Amino acid sequence: MAHSTGYTIGFAALVCVVCGVGIASAAVALADRQAENKKLDQQKQVLAVAGLMQEGETLKPDEVKKRFADNIKPEVVDLKGGVAAQGVDPAGFDQRKAQKDPAQSREAPPNNAKVLRLPNNALVYKVLKDGKVDTLIFPIEGYGLWSTLYGFIALDAKDTNTVKGITFYQHGETPGLGGEVDNPKWKALWPGRKVYGDKGEPQIAVVKGQAGPAASDAYRVDGLSGATITSNGVTSLVRFWFGPDGFGPYIQHSKAAGGK
Ligand SMILES: Cc1cc2nc3c(=O)[nH]c(=O)nc-3n(C[C@H](O)[C@H](O)[C@H](O)COP(=O)(O)O)c2cc1C
């Protein structure tokens, strides 16, 4: 039996409305769970760069939360002042959201990492060991070839100079080329390297070709082969975040306070 044109259009419209309502409801209903999963993923990344979660180790959500709560103390830092920001609860602070909000961020000065905006406050993670701050974990980001790379870098709190780990949790570089930033073997080249040179300038660099071992070639890390542009991006972004517009002032204060 043939239906009238009006029936066909009406039926199609009804299907669209029903599907639209379904998708919208799912998006609303799942928003909280998505936010929770995002938070959990960040916690996993922080644990990994702190060396508190091994490569390939799988943990249940509750185990991640517990390990994080037992070992990590987040701190919101006033980037310019280099001290803890007063009255900002780290649990509710989203640095990437703040960075996009004109009221909570400013234009970044021109820089090689191609960071466009700087949040007024940033989220640093302190790793505690026997009640003392053992490691400091800093969020980092900057442009590679195709994309902004987002990650974390960990420094030894005793000298605020020796790298303990690096990880990127989001980027759009080419798998097998710039995407090798995710290769555990490349990440394993970072611990033991030094960030700051004798004059207090960030000196660490991802070089073209191979670097020596950390003990004798502390400021250089092997380049990613076929991906010099991503490698240079990593150099720029690490130097930027440890420089005067990034965590430089905070690190100066931490040093003065004896790593507290
Ligand atoms: C499809 C395609 C994807 C590429 N992806 C990357 C990349 O993710 N990162 C990168 O630095 N270079 C990438 N390159 C290579 C760059 O264009 C450039 O040749 C390279 O960075 C130079 O590095 P090299 O001097 O180590 O060869 C890509 C090239 C092609 C054709």
From TrEMBL:
SMART domains: FMN_bind. Keywords: Cell inner membrane, Cell membrane, Flavoprotein, FMN, Ion transport, Membrane, NAD, Phosphoprotein, Sodium, Sodium transport, Translocase, Transmembrane, Transmembrane helix, Transport, Ubiquinone. Its cofactor is FMN. It is found in: Cell membrane. It holds the Pfam family FMN_bind. This is Na(+)-translocating NADH-quinone reductase subunit C. Its EC number is 7.2.1.1. Composed of six subunits; NqrA, NqrB, NqrC, NqrD, NqrE and NqrF. It catalyses: a ubiquinone + n Na(+)(in) + NADH + H(+) = a ubiquinol + n Na(+)(out) + NAD(+). It is an enzyme of class 7 (translocase). It is a single-pass membrane protein. Belongs to the NqrC family. The modification FMN phosphoryl threonine is found at residue 228. The gene is nqrC. It comes from Nannocystis bainbridge. NQR complex catalyzes the reduction of ubiquinone-1 to ubiquinol by two successive reactions, coupled with the transport of Na(+) ions from the cytoplasm to the periplasm. NqrA to NqrE are probably involved in the second step, the conversion of ubisemiquinone to ubiquinol. Transmembrane segments: none annotated. Residues 144-245 form the FMN-binding domain. Residues 94-104 have a biased composition (Basic and acidic residues). Residues 90-113 are annotated as: Disordered.
